[in-house]
Specification:
105 residues, Translation Initiation Factor IF3, alpha+beta, single chain, globular
């Protein structure tokens, strides 16, 4: 995944602020099924937000890093128990955010 400029990251954080967390990591931790679900969602949305619940043993920074590496995504930000990941969609019809990002370079 290519590096994003400060302006692009700011744009992604602005978009992420309006999004709701789609997934939650609980006491089972990060499973293969969880990663597959995030992979599917990020393909359609390009940006995904998830929470770490209090009963989980995972740390938000480590969890975000682990998931980002597995699905080849960029960590936009981590705040509290919430993380936001971005990856451009491989399908043209879902490339709304990445098209706007390309204009910001």
């Amino acid at each position: 995944m290519e590096d994003l400029s400060k302006q692009q990251m700011k744009f992604l954080r602005k978009i992420a602020q309006k999004e709701k967390a789609l997934f939650q990591v609980g006491k089972l931790g990060i499973t293969q099924v969880f990663i597959e679900q995030i992979e599917s969602a990020i393909e359609k949305r390009e940006i995904v937000k998830f929470n770490i619940l209090q009963n989980s043993d995972e740390e938000i920074d480590q969890a975000a890093q682990q998931i980002a590496e597995k699905i080849n995504a960029v960590i936009v930000q981590t705040i509290g128990n919430t993380a936001v990941l971005y990856r451009p969609s491989s399908k043209t019809k879902y490339q709304r955010i990445s098209a706007e990002l390309a204009e910001l370079k």
